[in-house]
Amino acid sequence: MPTIAVHTHVFARLVxxxxxxxxxxxxxxxxxxxxxxxxxxxxxxxxxxxxxxxHKRPFIQVMMEGxxxxxxxxxxxxxxxxxxxxxxxxxxxxxNLQQLFMNNNWTDFLxxxxxxxxxxxxxxxxxSHAPDEIVGRLRPTVYREWWEFTVEKVAVNAVMAGARxxxxxxxxxxxxxxxxxxxxxTTSFATVSIVNGPIRxxxxxxxxxxxxxxxxxxxxxxxRAFCLLSQNLxxxxxxxxxxxxxxxxxxxxxxxxxxxxxxxxxEPFHVQKGHQSGESVVTTFLGGWYTHSGYGPRxxxxxxxxxxxxxxxxFSEPILILDPLSAREFVARGFDNKQKLSEWFARxxxxxxxxxxxxxxVQTIFRPRAVSGIEPWATRLKAxxxxxxxxxxxxxxxxxxxxxxxxxxxxxxxxxxRENSIVSIDKWR
Amino acid sequence: MSQRLVVHDPRGYPPKIAGKxxxxxxxxxxGKVVYLVDCLFDNSEIFIEQLRQxxxxxxxxxxxxxxxxxxxxxxxxEMRARIEADGDAAIxxxxx
Lengths: 429, 96
Description:
The complex is a heterodimer of chains A (429) and B (96).
Chain A: E1 3-8, H1 12-21, E2 29-32, H2 41-49, E3 51-52, E4 57-58, H3 59-68, H4 73-77, E5 92-93, H5 94-103, H6 117-124, E6 134-138, E7 147-150, H7 151-161, H8 168-176, E8 190-196, H9 199-202, H10 217-233, E9 256-258, H11 269-272, E10 281-295, H12 301-311, E11 318-322, H13 324-332, H14 338-348, E12 350-352, H15 353-356, H16 360-371, H17 377-382, E13 388-390, E14 398-401, E15 409-424
Parallel strand pairs in A: 1-2, 8-9, 11-14
Antiparallel strand pairs in A: 3-4, 6-7, 8-10, 10-15, 11-15, 12-13
Helix pairs in contact in A: 6-7, 7-8, 7-10, 8-10
Chain B: E1 4-5, E2 33-38, H1 44-58, E3 63-67, H2 77-86, E4 89-93
Parallel strand pairs in B: 2-3, 2-4
């Protein structure tokens, strides 16, 4: 059936790239100006009656021709092609190779350790798995093709990030999660990883003072390795083509943290999710969209936390990251486990239905589910505009203890837990 | 002269891309059923309604039908089947 897709003009390069890798490079497209969101009916009618900003011709004309102009030879053949990537690159000087890696968008624009055969072989000693074993597949978004990768390819990126061989099982587990740290979402999502279990101490990861900052080799390079491998093993993360995050995200440099299980008054996150305390696992959260920080709990903590919860982006639930001092203050207030605290947060994270449904992502993603009768969104949609509704479920709110006890601080970092995003590290030793 | 190094390619393995032929086009839209597919992005409903109104005003011989998938970014085979069953063409829109 003849079809034509309408996009906003800022997606023109991405659309071209997607149709190319879909084998239909001449699929018909028409473009209107950005944005659609927030425009009035009259403004949108003007788009329709105006000029397609990509084709520089009237939008209606482009649309009509897209549905009625006869196909040409190029349309009829489609495009079949095979892209192979070599195992090794042509020999060159270190300076030229650093430049090549940067020119090809294989780095984060900080210098990398070049993955020589010797360094990669050394890295591979960090796992018992064969170099040619398939680890998994990644892609930047649901409408792109999956790319596959092996243990060796993960090791190559681990070398580039400056990681040590003993870190490789953590990095392999992150890679195996299927969760990219280079999502192409316009929301600029990163991926935040939390490491639990004995491996934290084996690798001397920092879960205390400065744990979320640049103060530990394992934290820094494991996180960076996950980011680099995500972009390189999924087929890129290039603005306008395979990355559309409008503002970008500092968590995209490195965002792998260890829970301070020793100083936490509660069970570790992975135990809460059904794992044994002696298991080492990594959990990947799609998030990092916002970070909200504060002190406490103090005297008026209920008002403070309820206000903070409703100030975050309601589409993306929070990971509540508590300093051990903050966690103990909650215990003193009767929250003797994480579940009770998640339930309190869910009960008090409330806003009017009209404000909740005014969120762009909530409209785009959640409203169709609500209309289809899928809970909890269906119930939220039934609420009157001024009715207060709970915006998160207890199971949406993850709680992790990180910090060195120099202050009773906390952070709310957006972090959506997806299916299969808790991965065994032990499996990759 | 600087030493020349042999290093690994850091990229993964892309899938082979199989070309797909796009569908034959119509000779004209008069009397045809054109589905206007609201892809559910915020405000796309209003865009699609404006497009429907434009057809009604300027090309009334074109029969337009507005349709929506069940969820955003999720394939809806039932919707596609309905379009294929009684439609002649489809316009999909629109993004952010």
